[in-house]
Specification:
Elements lengths: L1 H10 L5 E5 L10 H14 L4 E5 L5 H9 L2 E4 L15 H4 L1 H4 L3 H4 L5 E5 L4 H11 L4 E6 L3 H4 L10 H17 L2 E4 L2 H10 L6 E8 L2 H5 L14 E5 L9 H19 L6 E5 L6 H8 L6 E5 L4 H10 L2 E4 L6 H12 L3 E4 L3 H10 L9 E2 L7 H12 L1 H23 L6 H6 L6 E7 L9
Parallel strand pairs: 1-2, 1-4, 2-3, 4-5, 5-6, 6-7, 7-14, 8-9, 8-11, 9-10, 11-12, 12-13
């Protein structure tokens, strides 16, 4: 990171500037664009780049947090009757009417960046109209073959999504750099879109050092402890609860198992429940009468640290994009036992990190909606063998710490050369040391 900044001081006459086209800043725990924004902001900040970001609206808290990342938020300035219209994403495509004087509010822009399938079309349009000399980047958050299987994840139906995917190929042909936010997305883009004019850049977030300093919980010294299980609900899954229905079915069986053993059933906390929807979530999940389910709103940094330190097991179901991977890294950095989906990006990352040094089979399950027995068995096994499973988690943590140093070396590659010179074919991998705000915002 320091080397990159030093290169910046020697070679750049002025700070480069990037304009990110987004519809919101949001809460980083939501996953998707809000999480990606914070990773990208830190990435560009590490190279002393001035960062601007369009948003349809902002709160005081969002503006305050954006300043932590040195990001200037640009809101619409509608005039006349448009002032009484609720902002929506189409405003980005008609920016001349809604974002007045964008060129003067975001000066000397070298890069215009959009998010694939959501704001990339608007970014390309704004770049061609307002910043013709700037380069066009795309940040892709989801493997396109997976996103079709999760309706509504980007707020449109399947027909509209298929149209956007077709459009995405045209956008890629004009992009200078395609940024992927996780290994799975990167591999998909590399295989499906080997475009000579486009450089693939992979950004791999690492957990903050503060997570390494947290201690996993100790088992209470009594014969009948109350275990605490933690899971995280992402924004796109609030209505369908696809992954959490699987967990709920397994947890109901776990509660019955513990009762049959004359033990106290575990407590299950679900973080990320939108305010006012806790009763609805509980109703949809239909928990067993013996199962204590505690839905919780979006947490702060301190709250997430407290929850991690008091949880005996974390469940991380499959989730498209990089938020589940960032969460996985934070959980592993603390040294907490976890269960995730087999053959998912999370599984691939764990496998890559441990490199056969640790047996991880107890961490993996199918998460199959039609078969919750395996997940049930894995949870019971984890809790009934807690001391042993903590030792395994600490070994995984050691592997993560060992790999962190190797990954961080890639930060010293001269990213600014990709901005100042002609794009070369190939791909680059950067590792970004993420602060706590990347996973949970203050």
């Amino acid at each position: 990171m320091d080397a990159a900044v030093e290169i910046n001081r020697r070679t750049w006459k002025r700070e480069a500037s990037v304009l990110i086209i987004s519809d919101r800043w949001g809460h980083s725990f939501q996953g998707g664009i809000p999480t990606a924004l914070r990773i990208l902001a830190s990435f560009f900040r590490s190279f002393r780049m001035s960062t601007y970001c369009t948003v349809l609206q902002k709160t005081h808290e969002e503006e305050k947090e954006a300043k932590i990342f040195d990001v200037k938020l640009i809101c619409p300035e509608p005039r006349g009757s448009l002032q009484r219209t609720k902002p929506d994403s189409t405003w980005l495509l008609s920016h001349e009417a809604h974002f007045q004087n964008l060129k003067t509010r975001a000066r000397d822009i070298d890069v215009v960046l959009g998010f694939g399938l959501t704001t990339s079309e608007a970014a390309m349009f704004i770049k061609d109209l307002e910043f013709r000399n700037a380069k066009y980047y795309i940040a892709n958050l989801w493997p396109l073959d997976e996103i079709l299987e999760i309706p509504g994840i980007i707020g449109c139906d399947r027909h509209e999504l298929e149209k956007r995917i077709d459009m995405f190929s045209e956008e890629l042909s004009k992009a200078k750099i395609l940024i992927s936010m996780d290994q799975n997305t990167f591999e998909y883009c590399f295989q499906m879109h080997s475009i000579p004019t486009c450089t693939l850049v992979q950004i791999m977030a690492q957990p903050s050092k503060r997570y390494y300093d947290l201690k996993p919980p100790k088992l209470p010294e009594n014969d009948n402890p109350t275990f605490r299980i933690l899971s995280f609900l992402e924004e796109h899954d609030v209505d369908e609860l696809r992954s959490h229905r699987v967990i709920a079915n397994a947890m109901n069986l776990v509660a019955e198992d513990f009762k049959s053993m004359n033990k106290t059933p575990p407590k299950w906390k679900i973080l990320g429940v939108p305010e006012g929807k806790d009763r609805l979530i509980r109703k949809k999940l239909k928990p067993h009468s013996h199962l204590n389910v505690i839905p919780m709103c979006l947490p702060t940094v301190k709250q997430i640290e407290q929850e991690l330190q008091s949880s005996h097991l974390v469940l991380i179901p499959e989730s498209p994009g990089m938020n589940s991977l960032n969460l996985l890294l934070s959980v592993m950095a603390v040294g907490i036992p976890l269960i995730t989906k087999r053959y998912s990006p999370c599984h691939n990352l764990i496998k890559k990190l441990v490199a056969n040094k640790v047996n991880i089979e107890h961490m993996l399950t199918s998460m199959n909606p039609d078969d919750t027995q395996e997940l049930r068995q894995k949870i019971v096994h984890m809790l009934c063998n807690f001391p042993c499973r903590v030792q395994s988690a600490l070994k995984v943590k050691a592997c993560l710490m060992e790999s962190a140093g190797q990954l961080s070396e890639s930060c010293n590659r001269a990213f600014e050369e990709e901005i100042k010179t002609d794009i070369r074919t190939g791909h680059i991998c950067f590792a970004i040391q993420q602060s706590a705000e990347f996973v949970i915002s203050k």
